[in-house]
Specification:
This protein is of the alpha/beta class. The protein has 22 helices and 29 strands. The longest helix is centred in the N-terminal third of the chain and has 34 residues. It binds beta-D-glucopyranose. Beta-D-glucopyranose binds next to loops. Keywords: Carbohydrate metabolism, Cell membrane, Glycoprotein, Glycosidase, Hydrolase, Membrane, Polysaccharide degradation, Signal-anchor, Transmembrane, Transmembrane helix. Pathway: Glycan metabolism; cellulose degradation. It comes from Podospora pseudocomata.
């Protein structure tokens, strides 16, 4: 079949492909910024403008450039020598990098390690799914009345900081299509006041609770709607977490595609139940921050994540499939390249996988400045460019906007393609019921992303003078969402170690426990503590620090850690620190509290100042975030998996000094991902470890619930905690130094990330994926496997489309439609769809990308929203009884792992993969039956030759159920 060569992997479309006259393609990228150099990657904080720094927002990363220019003009003395040296050094580095890049690039062309991926053109049109048919019919009526300029308006952002939200397109006024307001992010409404700072995605993943996933999404969307937002830029299911130190893993739900898929889909459903469009992001393989986009790190191109076809399907694209099946309105393509083609211009990814195979009916939006060519991206399947600027922040030189008008007029972008882009966006708007003006009044957001003042201008990104108007109405949309935030934070707290210590009570210990404890200490030391129970709270992470919003975009680690940093963070309305909650809740008549809220560990150095303490609760953390800013040595991605701010040292010292070594220690960790605990986990008086992830605004309250046993911990790890970073394998390492002008990151480990890697190589983790303790115990019984359908190798044939995409006239519109209307008052740098003159536009025969004329066969895995419907049919049901056989009520997280049958074929399978989970609340002694539905997709692997999901028909599948990926006490076969 035509795809055979692609079978081994995805394509490698030339990233240097140029298209038509109107295409400000990759050449332009070099031209516009060519004065920057590779050394800029250390200075990249200046590269991305952030809130309330308008000057920065107009200046791309010129720091490096300015420095070298001033060197050139310094002619005398040591400084000039130094400058010449620096320049020479930079020159040599540049030559070396270029040479390496050329070498790597050539090599890649000679023998592409991931196969030659075919181009996939033309873009499948939206409108084939029954579930969207009404919306497409309505959209078609509206789009057919739009002018060319209106259509372009709908597809193109108006530019960075040109509206009140982080992204705005422009309206199609005459037909009644409003300007859409797009806002980050996955854990709350970014840059807004009076909102809820929910726990981050990773904490949600750790709850393993579908209802909470949905509820958080819904509450988030209520707030978005009430703030005037149409499109939420979340949830995030990529990065998946290939590298445990990856900077943005915390925005997603955990290092497993199944968990990400369910959590992503539930969040999408929750958000969209309120009529707000969800955006699933970042498609795909944006696994690290280093080199994620051009120039941010000084290199002219973004990193290429090189992935084989099977791994792409079974790991990285998998959760996007769930989101599409859940009806997601929008998909954000990512910054990075995939197999050396930018994700937002990669026709195999967007046209082939997303729109054909997964049957995505909504629209593809670029990440902010992730578009690198005009015509190329349009043909490759991009539908909306954000924020609308071209290759630099706030430069106003869009790759679409007027250039898209030109491209349609000269025929280099087929009108059909533009019509499909617009129809997809308008259909999504109808699909979510946003035409209902009562729910979505056609107004601007009631807050501004760019100022906290009541008044401001509507387009602060433009230097044109503008009228001051009310931009912040300070509308409180929090309702009672703190309850959900707190529930997620509490259920997302994972108890990793507990040696008969937790829960404690607000009175400290019961009289009986306290007496026993004091007797034991007396026996050991000859000293007896009297009076109140003496508790110490340690660590900067327990306290408020300088307040939760002390650093822009939360880009520093100080005070207690409630979220990571970047576009995924919000302005905290408040953050209940652990110490605040504990101070309030401990019974002062029984407990004496001492606080040591810094990490200097300057106590107890031989002076015995902690000798009296009987319980020490010590807090430490590890932070990371989006690559546009850095803190200490954390440049987005963490440099290692250690606790930060001297955390390990603090814990070790507290453990040795607490009660002179006899005190009990509880360690609490807030972190963006796995941290190493080896320095202290086996210390005998470290009796308990709570891994609280990133809890959001209700941090302290949620923690207190767990410590005091109001809520029985039921969080489970959404990733593996290894003993060293090396344990995660070579694929687990961030690429910190560029290995070429286009850094190449080969995902050679294939399917073997996180627990799949630990299982395959028999590496004993410290705490395995899925692990989490409770104050009670559970057991399993009575597994029953009930087949629902017969095993067959392939899914049923791809169905014919249930609906016909709309069709429109293909006559190229009149040039007049794109001419600047004289009455418009133009704002400088604002992106309009208009041209000053169309005189030079000639309709012509422009070269289309290679392979444009050879429509590849439609995927047998496709055919409807979410792909071939048979992939979603249940083929087998597994029922298991779960019993609470411990002393108190609690919630179990039964997890089902599948083991593929052993085959004679060469297909390699992971030892086990997660394919089901649930959360079950049980009173002591209570039993409930849990039901796991396994779909065809759950039971299949991606066959690169057949280019389809294939079920193994010989030999039994094994289903093991238990409380973690390594605690599987019961199993059945099919
Ligand atoms: C991030 C996206 C975000 C966008 C808008 C980008 O830098 O990667 O996740 O939605 O900015 O703020």
């Amino acid at each position: 079949m035509a795809h055979d060569e692609s079978a081994q992997g995805l394509l490698k479309e030339s990233s240097t492909r140029r298209s038509r006259s109107s295409d400000r393609g990759d050449n332009a990228a070099f031209d516009s910024d060519s004065d920057l150099d590779a050394t800029d990657y250390i200075d990249r904080e200046a590269a991305r403008p952030t809130r309330r720094s308008p000057t920065a927002s107009f200046e791309p990363n010129t720091k490096g450039k300015k420095r070298s220019c001033s060197c050139l003009f310094t002619t005398l003395g040591r400084r000039s020598k130094c400058c010449i040296g620096v320049l020479a050094g930079m020159g040599i580095l540049w030559v070396l990098l270029t040479a390496t890049g050329v070498f790597v690039y050539r090599k890649a062309q000679e023998e592409p390690p991931y196969g030659q991926s075919p181009p996939w053109y033309p873009t499948p049109k939206g409108g084939i799914a029954a579930s969207w048919a009404d919306s497409y019919a309505k959209a078609s009526k509206m789009v057919s009345k739009m002018t060319l300029a209106e259509k372009v308006n709908v597809t193109t952002g108006t530019g960075w900081e040109m509206g009140l939200a982080v992204g705005t397109n422009a309206p199609a006024i005459h037909v009644g299509f409003p300007q859409l307001q797009l806002q980050d992010g996955p854990l709350g409404i970014r840059f807004a006041d009076n909102i809820t700072a929910f726990p981050a995605g990773i904490t949600v993943g750790a709850t393993w609770n579908r209802q909470l996933m949905y509820a958080r999404g819904k509450a988030h969307a209520i707030e978005a709607r009430q703030k005037g937002i149409n499109v939420l830029l979340g949830p995030c299911v990529g990065p998946l977490g290939r590298m445990p130190a990856g900077g943005r893993n915390w925005e997603g739900f955990g290092a497993d595609p199944y968990l990400q898929g369910i959590a992503g889909a539930e969040t999408v459903k929750g958000i969209q139940s309120e009529g707000v469009m969800a955006t699933i992001k970042h498609f795909v393989a944006n696994e690290q921050e280093h080199f994620r986009q051009p120039w941010e790190w000084g290199l002219p191109h973004a990193i290429s994540s090189n992935i084989d076809d099977r791994t792409l399907h079974e790991l990285y694209a998998w959760p996007f499939g769930d989101a599409v099946k859940a009806g997601v309105a929008s998909v954000m393509c990512s910054y990075n390249q995939v197999n050396n083609s930018y994700a937002c211009g990669n026709s195999k990814l967007l046209n082939g996988i997303l729109k054909d195979e997964l049957g995505f009916q909504g629209f593809v939006m670029s990440d902010w400045l992730a578009q690198h060519s005009g015509v190329g991206t349009a043909l490759a399947g991009l539908d909306m460019t954000m924020p609308g600027d071209g290759l630099g922040w706030a430069d106003g030189k869009s790759l679409w906007g007027p250039e898209l008008s030109r491209a349609v007029l000269n025929g280099s972008v087929p009108l059909e393609r533009l019509n499909d882009m617009v129809t997809r966006i308008v259909a999504a708007w109808y699909q979510l019921g946003q035409d209902d003006e009562k729910k979505f009044p056609r107004k601007q957001p009631n807050f501004s992303s760019w100022t906290d003042e009541e008044k401001g201008v509507m387009s602060p990104g433009s230097p044109t003078e503008q009228e001051q108007v009310v931009v912040n109405q300070f509308v409180n949309v929090q309702a009672n969402h703190s309850v959900i935030a707190r529930e997620v934070a509490a259920e997302g707290t994972v108890l990793l170690k507990n040696e008969d210590l937790l829960p404690i009570s607000r009175q400290g210990l019961s009289d009986e426990r306290l007496r026993a404890r004091r007797d034991a200490v007396e026996r050991a030391t000859g000293k007896r503590s009297e009076g109140k129970f003496k508790v110490g709270i340690f660590g900067e992470d327990a306290g408020p620090g300088n307040g939760p919003n002390a650093c822009k975009d939360r880009g520093c680690n100080q005070g207690t850690l409630g979220s990571g940093w970047g576009s995924g963070a919000v302005e905290f309305p408040y953050l209940v620190s652990p110490v605040e909650a504990l101070r309030k809740q401990f019974d002062k008549s029984k407990v004496e509290l001492s606080e040591f809220l810094d990490n200097k560990a300057s106590f107890g150095k031989g002076d015995g100042s902690l000798n009296d303490l009987e319980l020490c609760i010590v807090f430490a953390n590890a932070d990371a975030g989006e690559g546009f800013t850095k803190w200490a040595d954390v440049s987005g991605d963490r440099p290692d998996l250690r606790l930060q701010n001297n955390g390990d040292d603090l814990i070790v010292k507290v453990a040795s000094s607490c009660g002179g070594g006899t005190g009990d220690v509880v360690v609490v960790i807030h972190a963006v991902g796995p941290v190493l605990v080896e320095d202290w986990i086996d210390t005998p008086n470290v009796k308990a470890l709570l891994f609280a992830n990133l809890p959001g605004q209700e941090s302290g309250n949620a923690l207190a619930e767990i410590l005091f046993g109001d809520t029985n911990p039921s969080g489970h790890l959404p990733f593996t905690i290894g003993r060293t970073l090396e344990d995660y394998g070579a694929g687990g390492k961030v690429l910190y130094l560029p290995n070429g002008v286009v850094p190449q990151q080969d995902f050679k480990e294939g399917l073997y990330i996180d627990y799949r890697h630990f299982d395959k190589y028999n590496i004993e983790p410290r705490f395995e994926f899925g692990f989490g303790l409770s104050y009670t115990t559970f057991k399993f019984d009575n597994i029953v496997v009930i087949p629902q359908r017969r095993k067959t190798q392939y899914p049923l044939r791809r169905p014919n489309p249930a609906a016909e995409p709309p069709s429109y006239s293909t006559d190229i519109p009149s040039k007049e439609e794109a001419i600047f209307p004289p009455e418009i008052r133009r704002l400088e740098k604002y992106v309009y769809p208009y041209l000053d003159s169309t005189d030079d536009i000639e309709v012509g025969q422009y070269p289309y990308p290679d392979g444009y004329d050879q429509q590849p066969p439609l995927s047998e895995a496709g055919g409807d929203e979410g792909g071939n419907p048979d992939l979603w049919s249940n083929y087998v049901v597994v029922n298991v009884d779960v019993i609470n056989d411990g002393p108190v009520a609690g919630a179990a997280v039964p997890q089902l792992y599948l083991q593929y049958p052993e085959t004679e074929s060469e297909t390699d399978f992971p030892v086990r993969v997660l394919r089901g989970f649930d959360k079950v609340h049980l009173k002591p002694g209570e039993k409930k039956t849990v039901k796991f539905n396994l779909t065809r997709r759950d039971l299949s692997y991606w066959d690169v030759v057949a280019q389809n999901w294939v079920m193994v028909t010989e030999g039994p599948y094994e289903f093991s159920v238990g409380l973690s990926s390594r605690d599987l006490s019961i199993s059945g076969t099919w």
